[in-house]
Amino acid sequence: MVLTKRIIPCIDVDIDDDGNAAVYTGVNFEDLEYTGDPVEMAKRYNRAGADEFVFLDITASAEGRETMLDTVNEVADEVFIPLTVGGGIRTREDIKETLRAGADKVSINTGALERPELITEGARSFGNQCIVISVDARRRFDEQGEHYVEIDGESCWFECTVKGGREGTDIDVLSWAEEAEERGAGELFVNSIDADGTKDGYDIPLTKAVCDAVSTPVIASSGCGGPEDMYEVFTEAGADAGLAASIFHFEEYSIQRVKQYLDERDVPVRL
To answer: Which of 85, 106, 204, 258 has a 20 to 30 A CA-CA distance from 51?
Structure first.
């Protein structure tokens, strides 16, 4: 049986000046602009035919605060597709509370890099299917990495970053992906700092390298500018799901239009 490729809209949520949850969109994790209300956007995507929905609290880790669970609960009440929530998850109790608020899965980045045992604890307590390890990767062209790929004639490795891409770790993405899989991660959510918000296409070398390194499903994120980019990341990199934000938020493309484009080119999707 051929598994269908998933199309997943994502909202990046922060606290606005009035203390309310709001969706923001930016480029390379910077220059964030107000985009909308998270609950209203969740309603819209639930109606639009999304396969899943991702809610990322983009400053929780950097600010050392907990995820905004009240808003997660409101969003969960409006979506009837799998909901993944990330941001500020550092402990088994955080995972438990996020799932209790209505999430089907949790996305963990900084907390898992700081204490990899969290992946094992989460998988054992709540099931592998609940644990998504988020990787915020950036390219480095030096000799500090473990695994290299050729990009435009240069050797490049990918570094894990934390706190919304604000800090490097010197940890090789491919080594970390392999460890996360061994520890029980059910999915890998691969974000490219270099491609984020550019609409120039997914980072194919990054995504393909991760897909080749692990058997765990990989969600490709960052850089999607249209259906052609989704097609490329599925057929050339082997991603299991394609995540996008801007093209859906600003209604440049509908989810159904993307799915129809893929279906016409024999990429299996749920119509």
So the answer is: 204
Joined together, the tokens standing for residue 104 give 């089907």
242 vs 234: CA distance, rounded Å? 8
CATH tag, 6-264: 3.20.20.70
For the chain, percent helix, then strand, then coil, each to nearest 5? 35, 30, 35
What residues are paired with 136 via a beta bridge? 161, 191
pLDDT at 64: 65
| 172 catalytic per annotation | no
Among 135, 137, 136, 244, CA closest to 197 = 244
Catalytic residue among 12, 14, 57, 203: 12
Cβ neighbours of residue 162 closer than 8 Å, sequence gap 6 or more: 61, 109, 110, 113, 114, 136, 169
Q: Which residues contact 89 (CB under 8 A, 6 or more apart)?
A: 67, 95, 98, 106, 107, 108, 111
CA Rg value for the chain: 17
Q: Which residues pair with 219 in a beta bridge?
A: 189, 241
* Contact (CB, 8 A) for 148 and 118: no
* Measured CA distances, 139 to 109, 158, 160, 178, 270 (Å): 17, 5, 9, 18, 33
**What are 42's two structure tokens?**
């969740």
Q: Is 212 helix (H, G, I), strand (E, B) or coil?
A: helix
Could you confirm whether 12 is annotated as catalytic? Answer: yes
Q: What is the token pair recorded at 97?
A: 């509370």
Q: Does residue 29 register a pLDDT over 60? A: no
Q: Quick check: 76 and 100 in contact, CB under 8 A?
A: no
Burial of residue 226, with CB atoms counted within 10 A of its CB: 0-12 exposed, 13-18 middle, 19 or more buried? middle
Which pLDDT band, with edges at 50, 70 and 90, does 36 fall under?
Answer: confident
CA angle in degrees (0–180, nearest 5) for 160-161-166:
165
Length of the chain: 271
